[in-house]
Amino acid sequence: MRTIILVVTFCFASLTMSAQVLKIGNREFGFVYAGPKIGLGFSRISNADESFGGSEVKFRTGLELGIVGKIGITDRLSIQPELTFLQRGVKTDNNGFESKYKVSYLSIPVLAKYSLKALGFAKIHAIGGVYSSVRTGGEVEFKDAAGTSTQKLDNSGWRRMDYGFSVGVGAELPKTKGTWVFDIRYDYSIMDVHKSDDTYNSNRTIGASVTYLFDFVDLYKRMKDTKKKTVAAGN
């Protein structure tokens, strides 16, 4: 996990240090974007009815906040590293006795994105890759006719790490200094996050998000042009 964090941190640091475009002949390859992301995730834990009890299992709605980078390889293919805070969990209801499992993670997805122009947007895209998450907190809230109580999730019963795959689709809408990105994504965990029983419990999440990506190559070029003009004016 530390290695992954260092790699992603280096990628984001590189975005601000140098925004170069590779030229082959008269054609440019490569672009660098980065910006904030906000969204909602609708999650549940598989086999929650068996492990936690409940005649009815519901999705839990949670917030997604993070920073997204986009490193272009060609005008269609790019790599997208992210650093995101996620809220996951599940709700169960057993004849009026409700349980809400609220789990938060710090997640690092590394995704490949393939884009095409279509549907009136500048681009639509398909995205897919892997993620690694570390649990930063969690609790379960119990509610019945007598009232509400909460209990912290302990490490003996819940795994701290979660790994899985992400796939999704989206669209991009360019603006003067950046790009609006709209995504719908499905995260599929391959970890048994609740380890205190023999039932396989893993996270399943459908998420929708909005990201604004700043064009670092354009910013780099404008800064260089401004510096040249300043030097020329001084001479």
How many domains would you count in the coordinates? Answer: 1
Name the CATH class: Mainly Beta
DSSP helical segment count: 3
Distance between the termini: 52 Å
The overall average pLDDT, rounded, is: 83
Order of helices and strands: HEEEHEEEEEEEEEH
The helicity comes to 10-25%
* Overall spatial form: elongated
Please provide a written account of the structure.
There is one protein chain. With 235 residues, this protein is an alpha+beta fold. It is built from three helices and twelve strands, in the order H-E-E-E-H-E-E-E-E-E-E-E-E-E-H. It is elongated and about 80 Å long. The strands form two sheets. Strands 3-5-6-7-8-10-11-12 form an eight-stranded antiparallel barrel. It has a two-stranded antiparallel sheet with strand order 1-2. It has one domain: Beta Barrel (Porin).
Topology, element by element:
Layout: H1 2-17, E1 22-24, E2 27-29, E3 32-45, H2 48-52, E4 56-58, E5 60-72, E6 77-94, E7 97-118, E8 121-144, E9 147-152, E10 161-174, E11 178-189, E12 203-215, H3 216-234
Antiparallel strand pairs: 1-2, 3-5, 3-12, 4-6, 5-6, 6-7, 7-8, 8-9, 8-10, 10-11, 11-12
What characteristics describe this protein?
alpha+beta; two-stranded antiparallel sheet; OMP/PagP_B-barrel; Porin; disordered N terminus; 3 helices; single chain; 235 residues; signal; Beta-barrel_OMP_2; 8-stranded antiparallel barrel; Outer membrane protein beta-barrel domain-containing protein
